[in-house]
Amino acid sequence: MESRTRLRFDAVMGKSLSGTILFEMDSAPWGNPPGGNATIVSERNSYGYWSGDRAAVEIKNIYIDWGVPAIPVPVTVRVGAQPFSLRNNLLVYTDGMGITAGIKVDPVMIQPMWYKAVEGRNWNADDVDVYGLNVFAKLGTITVGGYGLYYNMNSYPLFNPAPTWGSYQASMWWLGLYADGKAGPVDLNFDFIYDTGKVMRPGTETIAFPKVKYSGWATRLKIDFPWEKFNFGAVGHYASGADREKTSSTGLPGTATDTGVASSKVGSYVVPPGSEAGTNYGESLVIYNSWINRGDSGVGTSLNYNSMSRGPIGGTWMAKAYASVKATPWYKATFQVLYIGDTTQHGNTFGTAYASPFPVPGMAIRRDDSSIGWEFDLIHEIQIYKNLKYAIGMGYLFAGKAMDYGYIGPGGLQYNVSPKNPWNITTNLTYNF
User: Fold this and answer.
1) Do 33 and 130 fall into the same domain?
2) What is the dihedral of CA 214, 97, 311, 306, to 10 degrees?
3) How many secondary structure helices (H) and strands (E) does the chain include?
4) Is 75 within 8 Å of 105 (Cβ atoms)?
5) Looking at the structure, do residues 210 and 355 belong to the same domain, yes or no?
6) Whole-number Å distance between alpha carbons of 118 and 169
7) Residues 283 and 415 occupy one common structural domain
8) How many whole angstroms separate alpha carbon 391 and alpha carbon 43?
9) pLDDT tens, 148-201?
10) 92 CB-near residues (< 8 Å, 6+ apart)
11) Whether residue 320 is found in the same domain as residue 208
């Protein structure tokens, strides 16, 4: 059992000036242990502690919005701790200190942005800065856009215990195109994202691989056909996977792959450090995260606040069909079926099955499979009152070979095991006021 509460205050002085404060409080789960969530010393995420009285109120956002006067085109500016959201179900959603703007030149909107992710030590060049530009326009019934993000990470991973703090640096780009809107009787959403860059270890230029190159991509298309009380839809995505003979578990230079050689390349689609895109993807109940429980169930989602990770879809491809009916004003049912495939090379994205029962010293030869499995989901949404909604989702995965895992057994031999089919039942009760 888990709970989340958000309390937002907006101080609006007119169309040209406002301020926002957003608090967040969590109990994850009910019956939190002393010291807070996940053995952290603070009491964050722990208002469910027995006997209460926890210091669990978090500051999520504090920012000011204003319109710039005496400018021939409309310009707005936002300064402070604010949401950083760009295609938030695929690429990046987080909260951080920054300055963003909106420049309206009809029909084009231009959004420059800068965020300070890490300051580090004031006298050292160990900062992490994020620069971005998002440009979009509404053309008829469809909004089309493109963007670029540059992460200049003079310290990577962002926060790590000594002695690795500042040991690595990273320079990464994310470039994307998207379209949202209505084409005839259908609604569509399209994305294409490409990431490229490198992670370096300064002072080690003489070793064989002083840097690891990153180059991955992902694309997604969603189509909805609403008809009276029904909605029919389909979603497909493809996201490149890593080569396990060239990529270590951390993607850092100087680290070894399964075969014992130095890591040199990450071909998987990755998302920036701190991105919560995985919790927002919401396309299933077992492999991917679900909107029902706000992204707290998917076994396949990768979330890393310090380093780059494959996010919601890296290393997978998916085809999904679904249908929903709003049978009454207060009840809606949705059924969906997904086939999920594996795009990792010389190994699997989730599974760790071995290719041979006879281990090679210092090496792990992984089996390469293509099927993660078939998933079937049923979702019920019940509007109890105007402001009170209950949802329950039930999902079941018929696991494919790419979910098999390996272990070292008696005599040092390598064995593979097929897991039982995973399933999930999750519910949510939300009161909005």
Assistant:
1) no
2) 70
3) 1, 20
4) no
5) yes
6) 13
7) yes
8) 29
9) 999 999 989 987 654 455 578 999 999 999 999 999 999 999 999 999 999 998
10) 84, 85, 86, 149, 174, 271, 272, 275, 277
11) yes
Asked whether residue 165 is domain-assigned, the answer is yes
Query: What DSSP string runs through 147-159?
Result: EEEEEEEEEESSS
Q: Would you say 190 and 169 are in contact if contact means Cβ atoms under 8 Å apart?
A: no
β-partners of residue 226 are: 231
Using one digit for the tens of pLDDT, what is the confidence trace for 344-395? 999 999 999 998 777 777 678 899 999 999 999 999 999 999 999 999 999 9
Query: Who's near 274: CB < 8 A, 6+ residues apart?
Result: 94, 96, 117, 158, 304, 305, 306
Number of domains into which the chain is organized: 2
Domain interval for residue 19: 1-67
> Peptide bond preceding 107: is omega within 30 degrees of 0, i.e. cis?
yes
DSSP 301: -
83 found inside a domain: no
DSSP line for 204-222: -TTSS-SEEEEEEEEEEEE
Q: pTM for the full model?
A: 0.92
Amino acid at 224: D
The pLDDT of residue 203 is: 72
- Structure token digits, residue 281: 């993807």
Q: How far apart are CA 228 and CA 226, in angstroms?
A: 7
Residue found under tokens 């200049």: 152
At residue 412, the 3 state secondary structure works out as helix
Amino acid in the structure at residue 42: S
The token duo for 382 is 């019940």
Mean pLDDT of 35-49: 73
The two three-digit tokens of residue 140, written as one number: 């008829």
